[in-house]
Design brief:
single chain; 194 residues; Inorganic Pyrophosphatase; two-stranded antiparallel sheet; 3 helices
Length: 194
């Protein structure tokens, strides 16, 4: 797990801005701030400026998240938010707001109403039940269909037909996207506060 090399203070640290995206790039491990558990319709989101977890909305339908979900620190995606990650194969609920190391197994390219909102796919890095999974393809075709169905229909009662999964890709593409989002964080997000 990432160690924080910052002196203690009376103010709370915002992990979204002090942890690196990669916990161990060579082992495909990223730091993740967990926002949502699987099997909920509640959409929690970390407030970028404060690091506080907020109930963003209650889902418009009964479609529950089929995976846990979080944000990768020090990244900035095209949707003006930290890069998202789906955490699959979680056997016990994760505590929203906790920090987890997640091993990358792929990425899903996603268009959310004309906005790029890609989702890295990963498994908990230290869950021995997941050690044999190195690619999203090992999750099976039904997992891919279920995930596609979720993302293409979760907003149907609010904005039907606005979401489109553009495909699933390997870890090379996932790492490339994370690095692009790290660069965007430095070039687009940080200058707002200097």
């Amino acid at each position: 797990m990432a160690n924080i090399d910052i002196a203690p203070s009376k103010t709370m640290l915002n992990l979204l801005h002090i942890l690196p995206a990669f916990a161990d790039e060579a082992r495909l491990r990223v730091n993740v701030l967990v926002e949502i558990n699987s099997m909920t319709i509640n959409k929690y989101e970390i407030i970028t400026e404060t690091g506080t977890l907020k109930l963003d909305r209650v889902g418009y339908s009964s479609l529950a998240y089929p995976f846990a979900y979080g944000a990768i620190p020090c990244t900035w995606d095209h949707d003006n938010d930290a890069l998202d990650i789906e955490i699959v194969g979680v056997t016990e609920p994760l505590v929203p707001g906790c920090l987890a190391e997640v091993r990358i197994i792929g990425i899903m390219k996603f268009d959310d109403g004309g906005e790029v909102d890609d989702k890295v796919i990963g498994v908990l890095a230290d869950d021995k039940r997941m050690d044999h999974i190195s690619s999203y393809t090992q999750l099976g075709s039904h997992w891919e269909k279920e995930t596609t169905y979720y993302w293409e229909h979760y907003k149907d009662l609010k904005k039907p037909g606005t979401c489109k999964v553009s495909g699933f890709y390997d870890t090379v593409e996932a790492v490339k996207t994370i690095k692009e989002c790290e660069e965007r964080y430095v070039s687009e997000y940080l200058p707002k506060f200097n």
